[in-house]
């Protein structure tokens, strides 16, 4: 189960690196495809800086999870992963309540699954 937990933490980290990419570097291209219907097409250009800021935060979350995978001592690795997964869950729930329910399934749910598996 520990290996599965590690794999899930890595996948959540990769997902947030992908979100970083979309929001920081591909907001006006891939962002338009990804967030189709959530934002009018003409709003992508003026919101580029705001999206990049969100992307940076997603990068910090990914960095925290990657850091947890690099810590040799299991106790510390476990607790660092729990902290960053919990941050992602809270952000995903907030996003689901304030923006789109889809955010819960895309961001919070994978982090919840990883968190549960880590506890086994």
The poorly predicted ranges are none
Structural class: mainly alpha
Beta-strand content estimate = under 5%
Whole-number average pLDDT?
Answer: 95
- Helicity range of the residues? over 70%
* Assembly state of the chains shown: single chain
Q: What is the C-alpha radius of gyration, as a whole number of Å? A: 15 Å
Span between N and C termini? 6 Å
Helical element count?
A: 5
Report the count of strand segments: 0
**Element string (H = helix, E = strand):** HHHHH
Shape: elongated
Largest sheet: none
Outline of the structure:
The protein is an all-alpha fold and 120 residues long. It has helices spanning 2-25, 30-34, 48-70, 74-98, 102-118.
Question: What topology does this entry show?
Answer:
Layout: H1 2-25, H2 30-34, H3 48-70, H4 74-98, H5 102-118
Account of the protein in words:
This protein is mainly α and about 120 residues long. Helix content is about 80%, strand content about 0%. It has five helices and no strands. Helix 1 packs antiparallel against helix 3, helix 1 runs antiparallel to helix 5 and helix 4 runs antiparallel to helix 5. The longest helix is centred in the last third of the chain and has 25 residues. It is elongated. The termini are close together. About 25% of the residues are buried. The model has no long low-confidence stretch (mean pLDDT about 95).
């Amino acid at each position: 189960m520990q290996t599965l937990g590690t794999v899930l933490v890595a996948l959540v980290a990769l997902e947030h690196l992908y979100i970083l990419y979309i929001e920081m570097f591909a907001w006006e291209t891939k962002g338009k495809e990804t967030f189709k219907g959530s934002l009018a097409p003409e709003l992508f250009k003026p919101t580029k800086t705001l999206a990049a800021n969100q992307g940076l935060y997603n990068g910090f979350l990914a960095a925290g999870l990657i850091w947890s995978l690099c810590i040799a001592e299991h106790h510390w690795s476990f607790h660092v992963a729990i902290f960053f997964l919990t941050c992602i869950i809270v952000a995903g729930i907030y996003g689901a309540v304030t923006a789109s329910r889809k955010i819960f399934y895309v961001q919070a749910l994978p982090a919840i699954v990883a968190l549960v598996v880590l506890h086994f």
